[in-house]
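Can anyone check this?
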Amino acid sequence: LARERRRRIHDQMEREGQASARITLKTSVGMSDEAFAAALAKAKAEGRESVHVRAWLPIPAECLAQSEIELQSFTEQPGRIADANAPQRTVCWEADLTENRRFGVQYRYKTTAVYADPLDFVPAPEQPTFDTEEQAPHIVFTPYLRALAAQLTEGITDPAEKAKRIYDYVTLNVRYHYQPAYFVQECLPDHCARNRRGDCGIMALTFITLCRLVGIPARWQSGLSVSPTGVGCHDWAMFYIAPKGWMYADCSYGASMARRGDEVLRRHYFGSLDTGRMVANSAFEAPFDPPMLGFRSDPYDNQSGEMEADGVGLAGEERVTTKEVLRFEEVK
């Protein structure tokens, strides 16, 4: 059903130029009862009667694909809502708890997916140089990646053709594979190119790094993948070719379509996305507003929410998160 829906959206986008949906989501974050009991016991042993907590949840950011953003309700009044164009947009609460409770938000937004074929226009003779630099620890131009980028684009001068060669390499050669936490790994794109395994974020970083190596501006975008029946975490990439501007590359969706033998949809995700997105992040490894004092469970991305208790970041089973699709309405 998901593939049939994507094919239908692709056909609409190709025919009409775009497709839109209005989506309502409800998300929450909190401590597990076991983690809260342990934190409260520690606080009382130190002479305090409560646990000081801070909680962050991702919310829709202003971007080309999102409009009509409404933060409809909160479980309680937040202390801070980050700016609409924050690199990793969140809503943040701060409270002293004597009993455990969750923090949540309900929001609605309109998402518009515009159809783009990177090969249907003539690139400008001069291309921009922004978003072509290294960004350690993962967007790093290692000798292996330099050699791979040179091999993939040898003899090609058209930046769109270069980007397609890189997209083809990732989607046709890298197998989707769940990964350990990013912060315990070194240079994710180099590792991915060597063993040809990665999840959505690693595929996106590999595409971004190889594009930057050949002078194509590329950057990160992420948040949630949404359908009428569910919601999950997802990452993808953007790349820039003048005079068209920013376009998209969803390498993990493209790789999934390649495994199914669907070349039309694999090709769709080179240039275009679909209507099932919630964009919260425009940067990889960006700080929250306000920043966390403790160690983040995912210091690179912002998809499910973070929480800290008495200045210590929570991870694993200490943290409980929920995501729920309340409404998914396709609109003209």
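Reply from J.R.: I decoded it. DSSP finds eight helices and 16 strands in the chain.
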